[in-house]
Design brief:
The structure is a single chain. By secondary structure, this protein is α/β, with parallel strands linked by helices. The protein folds into two domains: about 130 residues, Alpha-Beta Complex (Aspartate Aminotransferase, domain 1); about 250 residues, Aspartate Aminotransferase, domain 2, CATH 3.40.640. It has 13 helices and 15 strands. Bound molecules: pyridoxal-5'-phosphate. The site of pyridoxal-5'-phosphate (PLP) has 13 residues, from helix 5 and helix 6. Catalyzes the cleavage of L-kynurenine (L-Kyn) and L-3-hydroxykynurenine (L-3OHKyn) into anthranilic acid (AA) and 3-hydroxyanthranilic acid (3-OHAA), respectively. It comes from Massilia eburnea.
């Protein structure tokens, strides 16, 4: 049996533990939802004041140059690059994940247009916006393009064939925490002549990534989850240098122009990753992304991953030890290589149980159907947090202290 003092001993030995100090977490809260909205780096408040009061307030429009606002998508992209195995000049922080995926898919279809391939293969269990963006693009093009949905990772083996233009997958599933084998699946796509587009929304800042070694062709990801960029902070897109010259998408805004201030009437794409940009960025929100990246700069993704697996292993073990007589079903893979940084359990009253947990300060979230989702963020989650969260879960389940008639908010 694992005791609370075992967990405290692990915290005392944890080299990442001091980083928790750099986040502002309310007292009495165990925050297991950093996979949906990362916690606030303390530095974000100072940085926001600087951007708003000084750069915007005092320096006004000169800040596009003097405060580096114009260069920020590329500068932050270069800072994010090492976390995903990208090189400098291959990433920009910009727009939303949905919009970046649209650009990446459009560019991938364009690169395949001479082949006559018309199919985008993805999973039915993918995060819906990813499927919607693919459906929107293909139906709008109205040239016979199709989106093919598979029901399991195994089905990819037969679904990918000579008609496949693009394999578009989310590396870690938002609901189950299942992690694809990026290298093997990219290789499968290439073997059939398809391109591999990866969504890293639940991977960036959660698991080590090596986009070049793993054969990805394009990738997008989110900064407001594990990267702690703040609510709705701009997303990122990766275009490897080898694909940049042929990176062509229909959102040809002036920020992707070779010489935006020439104000020329014709679009001419800039060289390099800049052509993934579209228009003016939300500078105040973009600036916050750096505060999250500053924390990652103090550790390594290997250290983050080691602690992440220890936290998720511990959570699974404690739930199974302490709540054995409750109808909980583990949907997250036990195998380390197939697991992201979250653990999901089903319960017939999952929504009500999650509401009871949140009311007692254990913040996770709920996803249909019946899934209670717990995200583990090594930068600010302790082993004792895990023990305490399971203790509260056990009490709620033992006492049936949840309201099965609880009304649902707009965001679950
Ligand atoms: C969180 C998430 C998104 C979010 O997209 P937005 O455009 O930022 O709303 C997209 N895809 C996946 C897989 C996600 O997990």
């Amino acid at each position: 049996m694992i005791s609370r003092s075992d967990c405290l001993a692990r915290d005392a030995a944890d080299t990442l533990a001091p980083l928790r100090e750099q986040f502002d977490l309310p007292a009495g809260v165990i925050y297991l939802d950093g996979n949906s909205l990362g916690a606030r780096p303390k530095a974000a408040l100072t940085r926001a004041t600087e951007v708003i009061a000084k750069e915007w307030g005092k320096d006004l429009i000169t800040s596009w140059n003097s405060a580096g606002w114009f260069e920020m998508p590329k500068r932050l992209g270069d800072r994010l690059a090492p976390l995903v195995g990208a090189k400098p000049g291959e990433v920009v922080v910009t727009d939303t994940t949905s919009i970046n995926l649209f650009k990446a898919l459009a560019a991938a279809l364009h690169a395949q247009s001479h082949t006559g391939r018309k199919v985008i293969v993805t999973e039915r269990s993918n995060f819906p916006t990813d499927i919607y963006m693919a459906q929107g693009l293909t139906s709008w093009l109205d040239r016979g393009y199709q989106v093919k949905l598979v029901d399991s990772p195994e089905q990819l083996q037969t679904a990918i064939n000579a008609d496949t233009a693009v394999v578009m997958l989310t590396h870690v599933n938002y609901r189950t925490g299942y992690q694809h084998d990026m290298a093997a699946t990219s290789a499968l796509a290439h073997q059939h002549g398809a391109l591999a587009v990866w969504d890293l929304a639940h991977s960036a800042g959660a698991v080590p990534l090596d986009l070049h070694a793993d054969g990805a062709d394009f990738a997008v990801g989110c900064t407001y989850k594990y990267l702690n960029g703040g609510p709705g902070s701009p997303a990122f897109i990766w275009v490897p240098e080898r694909n940049q010259d042929k990176f062509s998408h229909p959102l040809s805004g002036w920020w992707g122009h070779a010489n935006p201030f020439a104000m020329a009437p014709d679009f001419a794409p800039t060289k390099g990753i800049g052509r993934a940009l579209c228009g003016t960025q939300p500078v105040t929100s973009l600036a916050m992304v750096e505060c999250g990246l500053d924390v990652f700069a103090q550790t390594s993704m290997q250290a983050v991953r080691t602690k992440s697996l220890a936290l998720t292993d511990l959570f699974i073990a404690l739930v199974e030890q302490r709540c054995p007589n409750h109808p909980l079903g583990l949907v997250t893979p036990r195998e380390h290589a197939r697991r992201g940084s979250q653990v999901s359990f089903t319960h017939p009253y999952g929504y009500a149980v999650m509401q009871a947990l949140i009311a007692r300060g254990v913040i996770g979230d709920y996803r249909e159907p019946e899934i209670m989702r717990f995200g583990f963020t090594p930068l600010y989650t302790s082993f004792a947090d895990v023990w305490d969260a399971v203790e509260i879960l056990k009490q709620i389940l033992d006492d049936k202290a949840y309201d099965i008639t609880a009304a649902r908010g707009a965001v679950t």
